[in-house]
Design a protein that fits this description.
Blueprint lengths: L5 H14 L5 H11 L3 H5 L17 E2 L8 E4 L3 H9 L2 E4 L13 H8 L6 H18 L6 E2 L7 E12 L3 H13 L8 H4 L2 E10 L5 E10 L14 H18 L19
Helix pairs in contact: 1-2, 6-9
């Protein structure tokens, strides 16, 4: 059995948990997951598919793990590129929901039918707040946040493309199975986890010409016991914060250097 093989990883984790008490599970899981080199790739959400918000999608490039976003696009126009790189102020526009797709996952659809509100307006507002906060909290931001667009600013436009809530009821059942049966019940979270997909574009505030674009899709992180598993949009909040921090880091990272993506696994309780 190869260490990097996913079925082998599940088998190893199952045997470990059967032999040791549950209070050791988190420690054991951390070592086992580290050995499973393919786990992160398998847990990462697949690209959501580009929406009409994303311009010239045929020129989009898959980053293959080099950047924290699955797809990026940089203008081929050297003049637009030079003008964009010269500016040092960034306005974050209100997030659009015009391209938001209907929920398709069965359990997510059922949660909405049971009364879970699809909080797209609140999520859109929070996404904008996180991007603004990431630059204001950064110790070395390349861009200064501008309250309004102007001749000396770039504008970041964001769109929420997919938003499926986590299934709190389904995760409650999965939690019981983790303790009563085996942590292999974690695999059941493939059906209970939500996801959020976003697209963004940086444009010249004066001309509206697109300077840079990105797109990414994130699903709930794999957990053992986490309070966000019982909140419809708890994991989405973490995704928004990760995107904002990663985008800010990317703007000040020299071209050619890797900007790490967030992990698809967390041992944190919240």
């Amino acid at each position: 059995m190869k260490i990097g093989n996913w079925p082998g990883c599940v088998f190893v984790m199952t045997r470990l948990v059967m032999r040791f008490p549950h209070f050791l599970f988190i420690l054991l899981l951390s070592f086992t997951v580290a050995a499973c080199t393919s786990t992160q790739r398998l847990l990462k959400a697949r690209p959501a598919g580009l929406s009409p918000f994303f311009e010239q999608p045929w020129l989009a490039q898959h980053t293959r793990g080099h950047l924290p976003f699955q797809v990026v696009w940089t203008t081929p126009d050297k003049r637009v590129l030079a003008e964009g790189m010269a500016k040092r102020k960034l306005h974050v526009a209100p997030v659009t929901l015009a391209y938001l797709r209907p929920v398709k996952k069965a359990l997510a659809t059922q949660e909405i039918a049971w009364g879970v509100r699809r909080q797209e307006q609140a999520v859109a507002a929070r996404l904008r707040e996180e991007f603004i906060a990431a630059f204001r909290r950064s110790p070395r931001p390349l861009y200064q946040i501008a309250d309004k667009p102007g001749a000396d600013t770039l504008t970041l436009r964001l769109a929420v493309i997919e938003l499926s809530p986590t299934s709190p009821k389904g995760n409650a059942v999965m939690t019981l199975l983790k303790f009563a049966v085996t942590p292999v019940a974690v695999l059941g979270r493939w059906f209970t986890k939500g996801n959020m997909a976003v697209e963004g574009k940086v444009v010249d505030s004066s001309t509206g010409r697109v300077f840079f674009q990105f797109a990414d899709n994130e699903s709930d992180k794999l957990t053992f016991l986490n309070t966000r598993d019982y909140q419809p949009y708890g994991h989405a909040v973490n995704s928004m914060r990760d995107w904002a921090v990663q985008f800010e880091q990317m703007t000040r990272t020299p071209s050619g250097l890797k900007v790490a993506d967030s992990s698809s696994i967390t041992l944190r309780p919240n």
